[in-house]
Amino acid sequence: MSQIQWYPGHMAKSFRELDKNLRQVEIVMILLDARIPMSSMNPEILRRLHNKPVLILFNKQDLADRKILSLWEDYYRQSGYYTLSIDATSPQSLRSIYSLVKDVILKEQVERNLRRGRQLAPFKTMILGIPNVGKSTLINNLTAKGGAKVENRPGVTRQSQWYRLSEEFELLDTPGVLWPKFEKTIGYNLAITGAIKDDILPLDDVVIYALKYLSKHYQAALVERYKLTSTDDVFEILNQIGTNFGALTRGGEIDYDRVYAIVLKDIRDKRLGGLCFEKP
Q1: How distant is the alpha carbon of residue 53 from its chain centre?
Q2: Residue 246: CB partners within 8 Å, gap ≥ 6?
Q3: Which CATH number fits domain 3-181: 3.30.930.10, 3.60.160.10, 3.40.50.720, 3.40.50.300?
Q4: pTM of the model
Q5: Is the pLDDT score of 69 beyond 90?
Q6: What does the pLDDT look like over 177-197, one tens digit per residue?
Q7: Fold (topology level) of 202-268
Q8: How many Å apart are CA 98 and CA 27, to the nearest integer?
Q9: Helix axes 184-193, 203-217, angle to 10 degrees
Q10: Is the alpha carbon torsion for 80, 45, 173, 160 positive or negative?
Q11: 60 Rama sector, left if φ>0, alpha if ψ -120 to 50, beta otherwise
């Protein structure tokens, strides 16, 4: 399968900054999209962490298939990482992050400093993740000040920024880092969830891939949402969606661009239920 090259200059720079900033932090958080935990994990990140404690956060847990997400949590825990599924907008998720870091991951460090009579300095953490996975939303809610720029498009953060989260935590935000190149399947998953811009890959290819996957793994949800009578052929599925949802041209032909938009919006808005597009 051919590979897709997608490596803006600011992402190469962010790796250099990562290597420099790792010396300043005590724990690293990696934010993943819970629907695509492998595709949203840049493998180069893990290779650069130099034995730092790592907390993997599965964001957008409400959009994911809970059963599959549990498998991913087990997979990364067995690989030696801490894991937590969250909703970056949820106060409960934020409290869970604080508690896990202070009471579990850095517990020994806290107790050691207390025994030595040291005043506890704020823990320094770093948050990493590919573009549009929800880093800025998470940081906005952690700081409760709206300090991070948030837009619903890939690649908004352009430079590293420190944030004082509380008296106990300081956090370094970094630009999102995509893979320098990736297989088409990963590209499709990134496109389906909006991690890369919709014009990076042909939209018809992305939607056809999504429908084939849904037909195989979430057939009942697909049939219910689009009132399908058959899922045997992906092009017939497209035609049925176009007909049932009135996505037609003035001449009565199927308007496939509108169908593609309907399917992607439904996936991203959870109108087909919780989904995961890959298994560990």
Answers
A1: 20
A2: none
A3: 3.40.50.300
A4: 0.86
A5: yes
A6: 666 666 889 999 999 998 888
A7: Conserved Hypothetical Protein Ylqf; Chain: A; domain 2 (1.10.1580)
A8: 12
A9: 90
A10: positive
A11: left
